[in-house]
Amino acid sequence: MVSDYLSMDSELKIRPKRKLRVTSRQNLTPIIELLSNYAATVKFCTPSLPRCIREELGEMLIKGSVEGSVSCENDIYFGNLSDNTGKYKDGQILLAEAYAVDAAIYGVNGSTGNNISIIKYFATRGKTHLLSSRNIHKSIGIAASEYRIDISFLPINFNDYDELFIPNNAEDIRIELKKHKDNGNPIDVVLLSNPTYEGFSTNIREISDVIKNQNEGIPADKQVILFVDEAWGAHLPFLPKDVQRLPKYSLHNGADINTISVHKQGGGLN
Question: Which architecture does CATH list for 1-14+102-270?
């Protein structure tokens, strides 16, 4: 059972703020229903499994020993994750509806696998210069090296007293984008890790506005993409809307593509 996914705007353009769509369809559980017929061959590990899910799955959690064997050997039932078919497709559609995004794609090997997939996608589109905060996940550096993407780092904002990294802000982004553009080596992708491992969050809307301003008059395939590694932000779309100082979900605030880990802050299966 996969628990991590990335979600994206299909045309990689900044979108207006969306409203979450809550419908009766969100009660559907196509993958769990299918797994219930294979209790002897599928096993879950449960680092953050909520009680309601434990009760629903029942003895499935203690039977079997081969995780993922159904999806590997019985594509006729599950469909295929790579081809976006079957129950995977049904689940991804429901996931996109729940998060009010254009599309959602399940990933494997955690947000690490998703980051690598996204970096590979950028490389295939000729997006080879990435501007990043310093606190990136190791998977980003590995993928950038593998797919020959150059990384330029944003200046470090460090709180000496608390010994914590403070997220970069919109002005940091604006200065660096202009500097690289003036030097003849423009940025293709801005990457932010948000929320940070320390729990800080930057203002994604302000940063997306800076990028949008730079993209004005530029052909779509040459525009800067805002990519947010939101591994610790699976819960953000569902926070109370009347509390202004809570962090905001990136794809509802101008980001083009993100990756999240449902098993971290979303209470999902691992």
Answer: 3-Layer(aba) Sandwich (3.40)
